[in-house]
């Protein structure tokens, strides 16, 4: 086997089924912002329409994109206030309804029991939200303090596809890219990992049947070296990456 000893796992829709819940809360807030800023939307955003467009990006990243597209401005203080509000809205939804991705808990338990790997969470979402997510589903015990957020952990907040959060996580863990593997479900997350020099396992489990095949193509194109449909394929995928087969 190779020298992989560290697994860097995305959180939203990789470990926990949070995207749909989060985007519901997010859509409500963005529609309110559009009204406040007199932004003429063809139709209000829904959780579903936001997901299609912005999966893998955090709220701050979305607001930057939307300001450019609809040509409106927001002060830093306004943006910070909305970021805080979005976090509260989303965390309330997650604490009420969140569940793990199918099979993820079993794999984490086995990996932890094997003692072979350092496990870390590397997310675009705010740290408070990530922590609330893994606490709610009982996964926090596998990661300790090794939970990294592009929105919170960096000197300057960013979002995937920027590789900064992966580079930061590896620096904090004292690991090189060739000792690590990332698991990602989105194009922006996959690009972030690839740009940080990592091999990425793409995960398409949470996508609806009709979108799944398209996502396989998107994640491969973004640089994922292998695709996993279900967490029960993780061991086989990891073995292929570690042996250099992919």
Summarize the structure.
By secondary structure, the chain is of the alpha/beta class.
Record the SSE blueprint.
Elements: E1 6-9, H1 19-36, H2 47-54, H3 59-70, H4 76-97, H5 104-114, E2 118-123, H6 127-136, E3 147-149, H7 164-173, E4 180-184, H8 187-195, E5 199-203, H9 209-222, E6 226-228, H10 234-243
Parallel strand pairs: 1-2, 1-4, 2-3, 4-5, 5-6
Helix pairs in contact: 1-2, 1-4, 4-6, 8-9
Characterise the protein shown here:
This protein has 246 residues and is α/β, with parallel strands linked by helices. The protein has two domains: 6-17 and 99-243, 3-Layer(aba) Sandwich (Rossmann fold); 19-97. Helix content is 50%, strand content 11%. It is built from ten helices and six strands. The chain has helices at 19-36, 47-54, 59-70, 76-97, 104-114, 127-136, 164-173, 187-195, 209-222, 234-243, and strands at 6-9, 118-123, 147-149, 180-184, 199-203, 226-228. It has a six-stranded parallel beta sheet with strand order 3-2-1-4-5-6, with helices on both faces. Helix 6 (127-136) links the parallel strand 2 and strand 3. Helix 1 (19-36) packs across helix 2 (47-54), helix 4 (76-97) runs parallel beside helix 6 and helix 8 packs parallel to helix 9 (209-222). The longest helix has 22 residues, at 76-97. The protein starts with 5 loop residues before the first strand and ends with a helix. The relative contact order is 0.17. The model has no long low-confidence stretch (mean pLDDT 95).
Quickly list its features:
Rossmann fold; 246 residues
């Amino acid at each position: 086997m190779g020298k992989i000893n560290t697994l860097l796992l995305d959180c939203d829709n990789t470990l926990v089924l949070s995207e749909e819940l989060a985007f519901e809360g997010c859509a409500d807030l963005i529609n309110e912002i559009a009204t406040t800023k007199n932004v003429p939307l063809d139709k209000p955003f829904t959780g579903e329409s936001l997901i299609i467009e912005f999966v893998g990006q955090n709220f701050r990243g979305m607001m930057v994109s939307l300001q450019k597209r609809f040509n409106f401005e927001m002060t830093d203080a306004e943006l910070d206030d909305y970021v805080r509000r979005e976090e509260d809205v989303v965390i309330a939804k997650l604490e009420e309804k969140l569940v793990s991705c199918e099979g993820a808990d079993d794999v984490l338990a086995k990996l932890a029991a094997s003692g072979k790997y350092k496990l870390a969470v590397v997310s675009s979402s705010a740290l408070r939200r990530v922590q609330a997510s893994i606490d709610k589903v009982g996964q926090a015990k596998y990661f300790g303090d090794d939970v990294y957020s592009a929105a919170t952990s960096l000197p300057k907040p960013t979002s995937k596809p920027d590789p900064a959060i992966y580079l930061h996580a590896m620096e904090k863990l004292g690991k090189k890219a060739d000792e690590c593997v990332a698991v990602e479900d989105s194009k922006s997350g996959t690009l972030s990992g690839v740009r940080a020099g990592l091999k990425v396992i793409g995960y398409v489990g949470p996508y609806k049947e009709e979108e799944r095949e398209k996502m396989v193509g998107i994640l491969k194109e973004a640089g994922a070296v292998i695709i996993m449909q279900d967490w029960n394929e993780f061991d086989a995928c990891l073995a292929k990456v570690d042996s250099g087969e992919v």
